[in-house]
Amino acid sequence: MSMLTVYNDDRAGERQNFSDFEQISEELHDIGVQFERWEANQPLDANADQEQVLLAYADAIDRLTAEYRFQSVDVIGLRPDHPDKAALRQKFLVEHTHDDFEVRFFVQGRGLFYLHADSKVYVVLCEQGDLISIPANTTHWFDMGRNPDFQCIRFFTAPDGWEANYTGDDIAQLFPSYDEFVSSVA
């Protein structure tokens, strides 16, 4: 189940928890983040390749591509046995921004986005069927956990993807990791 937990950015005070999809979407909309749910046009098996995934979600991909003029769309995934999983995880665990918005659709598995906006940190557990679109220049980080197991569709307006602009803030260390968060809500 998708979840949203909202903290003050210093972790002081009470946190707010949301598990209703509509409430999550409304809370994120207030900070400019698009959050929606998609369903495949056809069944997919766990080993679907990029072509099969893109075909299964072609209608939603075409709609979003036309709306935002994406230049490239691809599928990426990580499994628990990936030899570089620790290094890849570290790359995203530091607060950063992008000059472009970041759009991810979770085909399989899940991951945790942390959005730092308006003196709050919005911790969003995205799962299969969730699309999140983070506006350009929004400070955020992402945790896929120690044993990542997900597949996502990525959308880019620049043909060569995006680059991270690291903020130098160590705020990410103040908040629960993916593994801590998931075990606390299990």
Average pLDDT, to the nearest integer? 94
| Name of the CATH class | Mainly Beta
Q: What's the CATH H-level homologous superfamily?
A: Jelly Rolls
How many helix segments?
Answer: 5
What's the helix-strand series?
A: EEHEHHEHEEEEEEEH
Q: Can you count the beta strands? A: 11
The domain tally reads 1
CATH topology: Jelly Rolls
Which regions are unreliable across 5 or more consecutive residues at pLDDT < 50?
none
The value of Rg in angstroms is 16 Å
Distance between the termini: 10 Å
Structural class by sheet pairing and helices: alpha+beta
Helix content: 10-25%
| Multimeric organization | single chain
- Fraction in beta strands: 25-35%
What does this structure look like?
The chain is of the alpha+beta class and 186 residues long. The chain has a single domain (3-185), classed as Sandwich (Jelly Rolls), CATH 2.60.120.10. The chain is 23% helix and 35% strand. It has five helices and eleven strands, in the order ββαβααβαβββββββα. It has helices at residues 21-29, 50-56, 58-68, 85-92, 178-185, and strands at residues 3-8, 16-18, 34-37, 72-78, 96-97, 102-117, 120-127, 130-134, 139-143, 150-156, 165-166. Strands 1, 2, 3, 4, 6, 7, 8, 9 and 10 form a nine-stranded antiparallel beta sheet that branches. Strands 5-11 form a two-stranded antiparallel sheet. A hairpin with a 2-residue loop joins strand 6 and strand 7 (120-127). It is globular, with a radius of gyration of 16 Å. The mean pLDDT is 94.
